């Protein structure tokens, strides 16, 4: 008994056709041989074996995927390959149902199947730009000019990447598939592996005559000037999206988006917390004691506020709706004025005398503190709630 499938069989030779035979030529050769070696016509045992080989050859060469494996030097019906009648075929005891199952297990795809060439035209990447603004600009909005360095569509070839009057050419190395395949023999049988074509980089086409402006990329880098509208109320770190103003993709693909990231410069007077503004104002001790009136210059106006007599250090005045406009909705935040009461550090003789007399009228003579239980005793009484 002869051993079958020991090596890759010559299916073309079995049918007596060339490797370039068309589907019709293969079909006609099969029908001719089938009539000659069919068991009903030719009962010779050798003819029966020949008839099986003819059927196997037609099964392989009439299937594009299996024929491709044969052209690569493999045998889809070899033992372990899962072909009909093999150990992995119907009725076999192998762990896989067929050759395709082996390929699915390794690659998750059809046996010998091609992923196809990757497109030359692809979407572009997003770009980000840092924009520094003053507090007044972030508060009330501004139309800011910006300069962007990005890839734009090549106007010479309109993204095609080819020189004028020329076209893309099918890659001769991979035949336009974008990948090359090879057959390896493993303990599981024959395994078809594919890798991107190194000649065309997986595109399936080549550029015989690249565009002289973009060198075949379909895009060029340039500096553009734009105007971005900053809405009122934006905060530091926020990003404004400009649709399709980013990088144009390879091959003239759709441009990505441009994100303008806001960075707010520190203000010399105000600090910002959300939509509220804060500032510090120093008032003399006498003004805090007697009361006074302050003129506060806000971001867009001047406001007069009263400091009540007896105002204590670290007091806060609130000016409603004098902060930053809300980004979403109407209205504005508030302005908080934090008061620092300044105590004089140097007194002349007359000032010291008058201050001592004032302290005496209030029973606050410094010299008498120790006689009345001491300064720390008074502090203890204050904490304990004694008048």
Automatic annotation (TrEMBL):
Gene of this entry: dnaJ
Free-text remark on how the cofactor is bound: Binds 2 Zn(2+) ions per monomer.
Species the sequence originates in: Micromonospora krabiensis
Gene Ontology annotations for the cellular component aspect, listed alphabetically: cytoplasm
A Gene Ontology BP annotation from the UniProt entry: protein refolding
Cofactors named for this entry: Zn(2+)
Positions annotated to bind Zn(2+) 1: 154, 157, 211, 214
Protein name per its UniProtKB record: Chaperone protein DnaJ
GO molecular function: ATP binding; heat shock protein binding; unfolded protein binding; zinc ion binding
Domain topic, free-text comment: The J domain is necessary and sufficient to stimulate DnaK ATPase activity. Zinc center 1 plays an important role in the autonomous, DnaK-independent chaperone activity of DnaJ. Zinc center 2 is essential for interaction with DnaK and for DnaJ activity.
Zn finger residue spans: CR-type: 141-223
SMART domains, per database record: DnaJ (SM00271)
